[in-house]
Automatic annotation (TrEMBL):
The protein's name in its UniProt record: ATP synthase gamma chain
Any one GO MF annotation of this record: ATP binding
NCBIfam families, A to Z: ATPsyn_F1gamma (TIGR01146), PRK13427.1 (NF009960)
Organism: Leptospira perolatii
Name of the coding gene: atpG
GO cellular component, one term: plasma membrane
Keyword ATP-binding: no
Length: 286
């Protein structure tokens, strides 16, 4: 049975842990609020770009752009997996890694080659452990990343697609649905999938020509897709860390209550024993 001193040390240890987890929870709450505001602010622009490109979809066969290439058969797929550099965020990294692993197996069963690109230290370590070949890993993405990083990714993968080194580009990341709901998903970036209902004529007058507008907008659509993926992934990471730290803080509080109850019980038993010994000694003297 543990002594009161040992129990007291454990109580102090859990109190220190609770201070750390509560601080991390507060930091993640502040970061997630800023990131969720950025995600929500980016939606109108990205939706409008998609709407505009969708209205020009009927010109996709007329415009001579390498970005509108539609391969008859898919031979190679570039897969970008977005994870975190740090842990302590629940199942955020493991869920994304498992989905990416399942997607790789699915593509290989169809005879399609996979070129793997990984964002985050957690994803890199996972795929190295499983024996997957990583063509390139990125560890510079954090909660401050934005359009600059998205533009770098977009230009790199657009070049691979234009040179026909890959026939498709996909992103495996956590999608932000709301502050209470985020889930990992596979997002197809290239080849460009347009809405067949789009029409470039009728009530809209385009200047310059619709074909020129479509050709110039295509890279912007891809950049916006990468920006959306980065912002949603980093926001989901902080939300997952906030929930994990909240659970850790609550668990520490429960352990402190349990240990304090045990400590008081042992202390009370010891005091009762000492009183009994004193009374017994006094009776023996009489």
């Amino acid at each position: 049975m543990a002594t009161p001193r040992e129990i007291k040390k454990r109580i102090n240890s859990f109190k220190n842990t609770r201070k750390i987890t509560r601080t991390m929870e507060m930091v993640s709450t502040a970061k997630s609020k800023k990131l969720s505001d950025r995600v929500n602010a980016s939606h109108p622009f990205s939706n409008k770009i998609k709407e505009l490109v969708g209205s020009l979809a009927s010109l996709s066969e007329v415009v001579n752009s390498p970005y509108l290439r539609r391969p008859r058969t898919t031979r190679n797929v570039a897969l970008l997996v977005i994870t975190a550099n740090r842990g302590l965020c629940g199942g955020y990294n493991s869920n994304t890694n498992r989905l990416a692993k399942a997607r790789i197996q699915e593509l290989r069963e169809k005879g399609i080659g996979v070129r793997l690109f990984v964002v985050g230290k957690k994803g890199s370590s996972y795929f190295r452990f499983t024996g997957e070949k990583i063509e390139k890993s990125y560890t510079h993405i954090n909660d401050k990343s934005g359009y600059k990083e998205a533009e770098e990714f977009a230009e790199f993968f657009l070049e691979l697609f234009a040179k026909e080194e890959v026939d498709a580009v996909e992103i495996v990341s956590t999608v932000y649905l709301s502050s209470a709901s985020q889930k990992p998903a596979v997002t197809k970036i290239l080849p460009f999938e347009s809405d067949a209902k789009g029409n470039a004529g009728d009530s809209v007058l385009y200047e310059p020509s619709p074909a020129q507008i479509l050709e110039s907008l295509l890279p912007l659509v891809v950049k916006t897709a990468f920006l959306k993926a980065i912002l949603e992934a980093t926001c989901s990471e902080e939300l997952a860390r906030r929930v994990a730290m909240k659970s850790a803080t609550d668990a520490s509080s429960d352990m402190i209550k349990l240990l304090t109850r045990g400590y008081n019980r042992i202390r009370q038993a010891k005091i009762t024993q000492e009183i009994s010994e004193i009374v017994a000694g006094a009776d023996s003297l009489n």
